[in-house]
Amino acid sequence: MGRVTTPSEEDSNNGLPVQQPGTPNQRTRVPVSQFAPPNYQQANVNLSVGRPWSTGLFDCQADQANAVLTTIVPCVTFGQIAEVMDEGEMTCPLGTFMYLLMMPALCSHWVMGSKYREKMRRKFNLVEAPYSDCASHVLCPCCSLCQEYRELKIRNLDPSLGWNGILAQGQGQYESEAPSFAPTNQYMSNHSHFPSFILEGLQVIHVGRGIVRCKLTVTHHVLNEDGTLHTAAIGVLMELMGAIAIYSAGGSHTSVDLNYSLYSTAKIQEEIKIEARVVGKRSENLNSAIIEIRREYEEELIATGRLWMSLLKTPFSLNVKHNGVDQVSKL
Question: Its GO CC terms (predicted)?
Fold first, then answer.
């Protein structure tokens, strides 16, 4: 038989029934508002996720020439943006014609505009603010196009050049910046034709014992002729990150083998993540690390590889002269 709770027992427990020994714990779901103050209102907070835009939605004065052009012929600005976002698959004239064709049709041009705005946000991991993609192109189509145009231009993807012009500009910068001699701090490997600025913009996220995580924005320095991440650049990143992971576990090593497989690629201004971790030893003197390269936003696998390094039993020794006297320097 169940036991009846008296009012005195309820008062001693702040109005709640006293749990008797041996009886199952019965929990009741009570709305949060019952314990909240009378003036409390529970709000649904929608947290925006992503990086902020380089300029605001209404900062059209930042590029006055583009603002005037977009006000007069917004279809041209859309065509330029679409060509860059589609990496040349859709040309500027075709995008302009499609946008112009949809403008009289119940003002449905916002469908195309919001679609490419969402595509840009996903590519660069941008926040959906201050309005949603659809609302931005329904209420402020010209301001939205101007903001997207400026975002690409700030990221060295000037829509006015077209996709082929962007690739040509990147190739020209690479040739002009490439040194005619190997710098002293150049990372030498089988891919030594890549100068040390291949690591420009590399950010170290985490370094621990036997593991390292980094992030890199793809620049024109590491592109193929078709605008994708160079295979040799992937090899350099894998060898370098794998070596750092093995060195962090202790000891001096030298590379003996690197093999990797390619599954996808990355393009200019895309961000990639590199993770290298020590996975085991084949013998006392042979360590290995697994390296993975992925796109940061979509987590799509670009390449995986494995680096083997041999432990050096004796340190390097160099004969150097100090004040004319031969000395041995250990590394």
Answer: cytosol; mitochondrion; nucleus; spindle
d(CA 188, CA 239): 11
Contact 141, 117 (CB under 8 A): no
> Residues 131, 124, 91, 135: what is their CA dihedral angle, to the nearest 10 degrees?
-10
Q: Are 244 and 276 contacting, i.e. CB atoms less than 8 angstroms apart?
A: yes
Distance CA 163, CA 178 (A): 23
Angle between the N-to-C axes of helices 109-124 and 141-154, in degrees from 0 to 180, rounded to the nearest 10:
30
- Residue 41 token pair: 């209102």
- Start-end of H helices in the chain: 7-12, 64-72, 74-85, 92-102, 109-124, 133-139, 141-154, 162-177, 231-248
CATH architecture of 196-318: Roll (3.10)
Helix residue ranges per DSSP H, 155-289: 162-177, 231-248
The residues that bridge with 271 in the sheet, in sequence order, are: 217
Among all chains, which residue has been given the structure tokens 């917004």?
74
Q: Where are the domains of the chain?
A: 60-169, 196-318
Q: What is the pLDDT along the chain (331 residues), one digit of tens a residue?
A: 444 444 444 444 444 444 444 444 444 343 433 334 444 343 443 445 678 999 999 999 999 999 999 999 999 999 999 999 988 888 999 999 989 888 876 678 889 999 999 999 988 889 998 999 999 999 999 999 999 999 999 988 899 999 888 888 766 654 554 443 333 333 334 444 454 556 777 888 888 888 999 988 888 777 777 778 888 888 888 888 988 888 888 777 788 888 899 998 888 888 899 999 998 766 667 888 999 999 887 788 999 999 988 877 655 444 544 555 444 444 3
Q: Is the pTM of this model over 0.85?
A: no
Distances (CA, A) of 107 to 15, 58, 90, 104: 62, 21, 22, 5
Residue of 222, 228, 243 whose CA lies nearest to 305: 243
C-alpha closest to that of 194 among 156, 231, 242: 231
Would you put residue 107 in left (φ > 0), alpha (ψ -120 to 50) or beta? left
